[in-house]
Amino acid sequence: MLSFRVDHGKLKATSRPLLKLRAGWALVRVRLAGICHTDVEILRGYHGFQGTPGHEFVGEVTEVHGVSAAAKKKWLGQRVCGEINVSCCAYGFKPVCDFCRRGLKTHCARRTVLGIVNHDGAFAEYLALPIENLHAVPKNVTDEQAVFVEPLAAACEILDQVNVKKFRCAAVLGDGKLAQLIARVLRTAIPRVVMYGKHEEKLALARRAGIQTRKVRGDASDLKRIKENFRLVVEATGSPSGLALAQHIAEPRGTLVLKSTFHDAAPVETWPIVVKEITVVGSRCGPFGKAIALLRSGKIDPRSLVTRTFPLAEAQKAISSAQHPAVMKVLLKT
């Protein structure tokens, strides 16, 4: 099969045999894979990953191993997306770790993470995941929608971490792919959502989804110019500079949710957190079921966020395109 691997900060095409499956695992033929900011950071050294990146995907199950006839019938040919954290239970490790015993499999002490930590990902013709990680894609959800399930689930995680009923308005910092999904998810539960971003064309996408927008410069001058404050702020700029603005616009006793992941260290002053007694929440992966339900219901349709689709063979060109400031979601099609 064709796959792409990280090689000294670039993607390198390789040909390799099909993956061998563990009992309870499935082989998935990738139909579409999405490129996200984390994939770009991996090329810059994030997590020191050296395998095949890519963790956003929709595919079709072509093989399952070590399961009952009923399970095989259920999954073969099924269109799926998949949770990216593979816990020690799926590897058959005994005893299972304390986090898995507590039901926190996404924080498993021995987990691998699809396309991020010790597990080859979706920039390939095929990938392997445990059946327990797979979610069937409803027939009325297209491939172009289903490829967004993983980042949309990450946006939905905020609804599980924060009691959004307490808030009448929220701010989302950033206008990129994840920020756009976060704003749309919050808009399903909070009357007023305001997006702060640097790119007018991206802010226009948010406005069409019923989200208010504010243009910022993305530098220290924003701290002097922006006077509005919010009880709920989500930082999703994908850059260290967003954290200072997030602390600036958070109200005293407000809540700040951190969504950005980047390789470099972030210079940060902690005094606003202390003085304003801000609650800071780290937020990562989220509930696939809720994300799929939003797509199935039509409450969120992320297809307008797709800028371009490349064939898998042009993955190097695709990831270069994805780093252009004006570009939103770039997809790879096998």
Feature tags:
single chain, 334 residues, alpha/beta, seven-stranded mixed beta sheet, six-stranded parallel beta sheet, 17 strands, 27% helix
Note down, in words, how this protein is organized.
The structure is a single chain. The longest helix is centred in the middle third of the chain and has 13 residues, at 149-161. The termini are close together. The strands form 4 sheets. Strands 3, 4, 5, 8, 9, 16 and 17 form a 7-stranded mixed beta sheet that branches. The protein is built from 12 helices and 17 strands. By secondary structure, it is an alpha/beta fold.
Biggest β-sheet: count, sense, barrel?
A: 7 strands, mixed
Total number of helices: 12
In total, the number of strands is 17
Category by helix and strand content: alpha/beta
Strand content: 25-35%
Amino-to-carboxy terminus distance? 11 Å
Spell out the helices and strands N to C: EEEHEHEEHEEEHHEHEHEHEHEHEHEHE
Shape: globular
Uncertain regions spanning at least 5 consecutive residues: none
Radius of gyration: 20 Å
pLDDT averaged over residues: 94
**What fraction, in percent, of the residue positions are helical?**
25-40%
Task: Write a short abstract of this structure.
The protein has about 325 residues and is of the alpha/beta class. The chain has helices at about 35-45, 70-75, 100, 145, 150-160, 175-185, 200-210, 220-225, 240-250, 270-275, 290-295, 315-320, and strands spanning about 1-5, 10-15, 25-35, 55-65, 80, 85, 110-115, 125-130, 135, 170-175, 190-195, 210-215, 230-235, 250-260, 280, 305-310, 330-334.
